[in-house]
Amino acid sequence: MKAVVTVIGKDMVGILAKISAVCADYNANILEVTQSVLRELFAMIMLCDITGMDARFDDFSSRLSALGNELGLSIHVMHEDIFNSMHRI
After folding, report:
1. Domains in the chain: how many in total?
2. Cα 29 from Cα 70, distance rounded (Å)
3. pLDDT at 31 over 80
4. Which residue in 5, 6, 12, 57 has a CA-CA distance of 20 to 30 Å to 41?
5. For the residues of 4-57, what is the DSSP string, one character each?
6. 81 or 35, which is more confident?
7. 79: CATH
8. What is the span of the domain harbouring residue 25?
9. CB count, 10 Å around CB of 77?
């Protein structure tokens, strides 16, 4: 099982490190990361393996959303099943 994490906001030092730390706390393994900085805008998409996660998915999602609020970023976590359903024709 996987989760897609998206992050958008003003660029600052440590965004990837802080999000990665939350993933590690929940035993969510980061598989792939793509990030870009356009002027001062930071954008990132992260794919995480949540098979070994030792908490509920909504707890993980809520913690990352709260981190986004603390940092002034929009952080959204979507379960792979929902992501795939949304993009099926």
Report:
1. 1
2. 23
3. yes
4. 57
5. EEEEEEE--TTHHHHHHHHHHHTTPEEEEEEEEEETTEEEEEEEEE-TT-SS-H
6. 35
7. 3.30.70.260
8. 2-86
9. 22
Residue 44 to residues 10, 33, 56, 73, Cα–Cα distance (Å): 12, 7, 23, 11
What is the model's pLDDT at position 89?
A: 58
Crossing angle, helix 15-25 and helix 57-71, to 10 degrees?
Answer: 160
Q: How many residues are recorded in the chain?
A: 89
- C-beta neighbour count of 6 within 10 angstroms: 13
Does residue 86 have a pLDDT over 90? no
What pLDDT, on a 0 to 100 scale, did the predictor assign at position 5?
97
pLDDT at 87: 67
